[in-house]
Design a protein that fits this description.
The complex is a heterodimer of chains A (264) and B (209). Helices cover 48% and strands 14% of the residues of chain A. Chain A has 264 residues and is an alpha/beta fold. Chain A has a single domain (2-259), classed as Dihydropteroate synthase-like (TIM Barrel, Alpha-Beta Barrel), CATH 3.20.20.20. Chain B has two domains: 3-79, Methionine synthase domain (Methyltransferase, Methionine Synthase (B12-binding Domains), Chain A, domain 1, Orthogonal Bundle), CATH 1.10.1240.10; 87-207, 3-Layer(aba) Sandwich (Rossmann fold), CATH 3.40.50. Chain B has helices spanning 3-10, 14-26, 31-51, 56-79, 101-112, 126-136, 150-163, 181-187, 196-207; strands spanning 87-93, 115-119, 140-144, 171-175, 191-192. In chain B, helix 1 crosses helix 3 (31-51), helix 2 (14-26) packs parallel to helix 4 (56-79) and helix 4 (56-79) packs parallel to helix 5 (101-112). The radius of gyration of chain B is 17 Å and the shape is globular. The chains are: A alpha/beta (264), B alpha/beta (209).
Chain lengths: 264, 209
């Protein structure tokens, strides 16, 4: 499973402070530790005002790249910020994200197509977040038509069936799994991803909920996720779930992790 | 005052709470007292949420119970002489944001504390706020928002109210998940409130009562 490391996100207070104070050490350390923990991509989100965002996002990109080789996942809805960041990257990035929203398809998809980026595609559009899996799949059809028309290969698309907190809708997990399965059936080459920790927002003891969700989502076909690579419990859950799903030949990844002390 | 009712609501015992309300209505209890019990219960719920004992689902269920209780009481409330309302408040979640659990509790608490509340719902455009203020003529406007994008939308909303020449007619309070005093400054609002209790206090301080 491809792990997209979520920690460098300016909507978190501590990171916001580091960005504002240009604390390069803090950001580089977060990048290094996530990379060492096995992140395949590092999400970077400046979380600042549209005017500030391009500079802040570029600063994040430059500092992460100076520290690790891991490719970046550029997390912004702002085409100016994305454009600036794409100009600064060493490796082709992933773009987080497009959706069925017309402005995103008009302004962000062209950047994705032009630079050969992978792209996260949210199963929502300009109206509310669709409540049913049928409605979400309908949006995905629309988005896939657009990505295909733009020449983006299916394998570059990472569909996010949308994780809403179980705290306000106890069917939120079920809707997610249903959508995931339907999208996978319709578009077998497409990757499936999710912002895991959303599932437990607003509830206590979030870790158990996140782990249960990850396990069940993997069973339903999830093959990548935006998560905290430094969360040991989550990492252990991931290894165990992949093992039990028959994806770990000779249990090698699991036992290697054990010997490395990851499963303590 | 029915301590049993207050506890049933505060402890999330929905079936029991609604059954009690129905019995009290049949027994000719004062509907205003029942609403006051609901208000007391919401104070407890709010405190438990702040303490970290209760979470979002409890707030949602509380809001659900309040809606159902209000529905049961409607016919009885309609029979009462028109109570003097303390003042008028327009409330809404700003454009681009659909979060409303907290807003709904604010609406209830303002209403039960004697204000005439117009709740515009969610994803409310600046234009719709301006129109509502023009028609309803409130003294207070409450802007609710949870997403970080709401900061800018709130500012746009306040700017639209100003552009319409209505800014001096109203006091504007903001509230919601990511909000704090900084937001008040950024948006040009008059105050920021942490929760429904704060909203009520602000409205009372501004309008009197």
């Amino acid at each position: 499973m491809e792990i997209i490391g979520e920690k460098i996100n300016g909507t978190r207070k501590r990171v916001a402070r580091a960005i504002a104070e240009r604390d390069a050490g803090f950001v580089r350390d977060l990048a290094l530790r996530q990379a060492q923990a096995g992140a395949a991509w590092l999400d970077v989100n400046a979380g600042t005002h549209p005017q500030q965002e391009p500079d802040d996002l570029v600063w994040l990109v430059e500092n992460v790249q100076a520290e690790v080789d891991t490719p970046l996942c550029l997390d912004s809805a702002n085409p100016q910020a994305l454009g600036a960041a794409i100009g600064a990257v060493d490796k082709t990035p992933m773009v987080n994200s497009i959706s069925g929203e017309p402005e995103r398809l008009e302004n962000i998809l062209p950047l994705v197509a032009e630079h050969g980026c992978r792209v996260i595609a949210l199963a929502m559009d300009a109206t509310r977040i669709p409540e049913t899996s049928e409605a979400r799949v309908a949006v995905v059809h629309k988005v896939m038509a657009a990505t295909r028309a733009a020449g983006v290969p299916d394998e570059h698309v990472y569909v996010d069936p949308l994780v809403l907190t179980i705290g306000t809708d106890t069917c939120s997990g079920l809707t997610f799994f249903e959508t995931l399965r339907a999208v996978h059936a319709a578009y077998p080459e497409v990757h499936l991803t999710a912002g895991l920790s959303n599932i437990s927002f607003g509830l206590p003891a979030r870790s158990y909920i996140n782990r249960a969700f990850l396990t069940l989502a993997l069973g339903a076909g999830l093959d990548s996720a935006i998560l905290d690579p430094l969360d040991k419990d989550l990492q252990a859950t991931l290894l165990a779930a992949e093992l039990v799903l028959g994806r770990d030949d000779y249990c090698l990844a699991y036992t290697r992790a054990y010997r490395a002390g990851v499963l303590d | 005052m029915s301590e049993q009712l207050v506890n049933a609501i505060a402890d999330m015992r929905e079936e029991e709470a609604l059954k009690l309300v129905k019995e009290m209505v049949e027994g000719d209890s004062d509907p205003l007292e029942i609403l006051d019990d609901a208000r007391k219960a919401m104070d407890v719920v709010g405190k438990r949420y702040e303490e970290g004992t209760y979470f979002l689902p409890e707030l949602m269920l509380a809001g659900e119970m309040l809606n159902q209780i209000t529905d049961i009481l409607k016919p009885k409330l309609a029979e009462l002489p028109e109570a003097e309302r303390l003042g008028k408040v327009v409330v809404g979640t700003v454009a681009g944001d659909i979060h409303d659990i907290g807003k709904n509790i604010v609406t209830f608490m303002l209403d039960v504390n004697g204000f005439d509340v117009l709740d515009l719902g969610v994803d409310v455009s600046p234009q719709k706020f301006v129109e509502a203020i023009g028609d309803f003529q409130p003294q207070v406007v409450g802007l609710s928002g949870f997403l970080t994008l709401a900061f800018d939308t709130m500012k746009e909303t306040v700017d639209a109210i100003t552009a319409a020449g209505l800014r001096d007619n109203v006091k504007i309070m903001v509230g919601g998940g990511q909000m704090d005093d900084q937001v008040k400054v950024h948006t040009g609002a008059d105050a920021y409130g942490r929760d429904a209790m704060a909203a009520v206090k602000l409205a009372k301080d501004w309008i009197g009562g």
